[in-house]
Structure prediction request, 630 residues.
Amino acid sequence: MALLEIRNLRTSFFTHLGEVKAVDGVSFQVGEGEAVALVGESGCGKSVTALSIMGLVPPPGKIIGGEIVLAGEDLTKLSGPKMRRLRGNVLSMISQDPMTSLNPVLNIETQLGEGLRLHKGMDAKAARQRVLELLNLVGIPEAERRLRQYPHEFSGGMRQRLMIAMALACSPKMLIADEPTTALDVTIQAQIIELLKDLKSSFSSSILLITHDMGIVAGLCQRVIVMYAGRVVETGSVEAVFGDPQHPYTWGLLRSLPRLDQRKERLVPIPGQPPDLLMAPQGCPFAPRCRCAMRICVQQMPAMTATAKGAVACWLQELGPQAVKRAREEVA
Amino acid sequence: MILVLWVIATVTFVLMNIIPGGPFASEKPLPEAVKRNIEARYRLNDPLWKRYVDYMGNLIRWDLGPSFKYEGRTVNDIINSGFPVSAILGVTSVALALLLGIPAGILAALKQNKWPDTLAMLAATVGVSVPSFIMATFLMYIFAYKLRWFPAALWGRPSQVVLPALALAGFPAAFFARLTRASMLEVLGEDFIRTAHAKGLSTTAVIMRHALKCALIPVFTYLGPLLAQIMTGSFVIEKIFAIPGLGQHYVTSIYNRDYTVILGVTIFYSTLLVTLNFLVDLGYVLLDPRIKLTEPSS
Prediction:
């Protein structure tokens, strides 16, 4: 059975302009010990999905439908105190920007030990011991001395290590990493990904990695979920999605990525903008930017259909695998 | 710090001597002999530069000289008797202001745009705009005259502190409430507040441990000058409640051209202000670890 199962999740923001459907009917699963990537452009609903799982959607946002089942329990139906017992304990999150996500006026020991004392009932001494272990684990040298230091005394990469240590403090079953490398420079990005990879094997947590960078997916994850405009458009194993992508949006994402094995090829951005989620289109949300769009694409929303190695929501599937392959080559 | 005090003392000394009139100028001219005697006693017939040098010399030993108007009392006496009164009143009212203002500000921020916020901000607007002497008369009328809960005036018993302290606390309480609300709202929007929530902390823990410390930094800044200002006494409030504080002496000394009292109280007030500001700066280091007291080297 899957550790985390999301069924038809819908999260909307009720602004004064109207309802913004940030997440509109998303379903996926994350298995025990599995690492899954959630990819897509900025604003496609990845982070809101993460916050919905954590139960931390900021107002005026609200989960308006669906289920988030973690180890057999529907999180959307849990009371505040019950949800708090899971948060930071069974379920934890590494957030996007390590520069602003640590409290500037509390020292490291306090911030990292807080969760341990709350969830594991540790006293100050035990918590400190565990924090020292964690700091060593995430590769922060001179842990003893650094306990008393404050976030501003750490570099960006070190702060992200702190965030990771904080998220791992109570050995969560489910770890959500919301763009853990976006705010860091490239060499540090690689280090953080390496660290996550190491920790994944030693902690046996399930990981939901949220990113718009396809490059970091392959190294860490087994499965990929591609989101567009608040919906899942394609899912599959890493090999399937990278090797034989089915959805035209996935093609675009992959072609906008630099590759080492194909030289001299220009990077091609996906033309156009994601749709305005205030006025969600009737048909496929990607149709206005899709070079293979057919008449039906703007009229009717395609349903998720199973493919050989995954699932995809695209009308091209109706034409058969040969037609999909031809269309892909044409676009490329 | 010493330099600042010296500049203040000098400027006050010069200004005071530019103003026409003197402590012994009155409608009825004194006989020439008497006047000479008095001036000799207080050394007013010395040239200006000599008086200045003498005064500075005494000042270093914190001897502020005799009062010209109150026979037999030195300025040190006046400060020693007036300041504790003003200080008790001041500290009480600042404490009241903090106790009322900060919780009101937090509440308003947490219930932004709901009725507690509206109510607190309405009260704060009233607090900022109603002058303390109006507040004082209102308080006197309601609590002393109508309800007879507290004495209307005079000084000595603890119950006599309540009304003047409340009247003085009005403005700073309102100010603190607004300041706390604004900075709390800013802090609550920060990413690290979300991190704190993501750890599973309760809302109370998030606010008390993570938000409040950051939010109180601007409030703390205002505390230094406010304390000094209130502790040296509000002339109006002391006058209304007939309290023998320092503020009273300060203002009457100017009417009286009581040179030494003007100078002495001004210097005392400046010292207090400079010291409190210095303490606030030191306090920053405890409150905000990003600020360090180091030499600006390399």
User: Anything to note?
Assistant: Chain B touches chain A through 20 residues (CB under 8 Å).
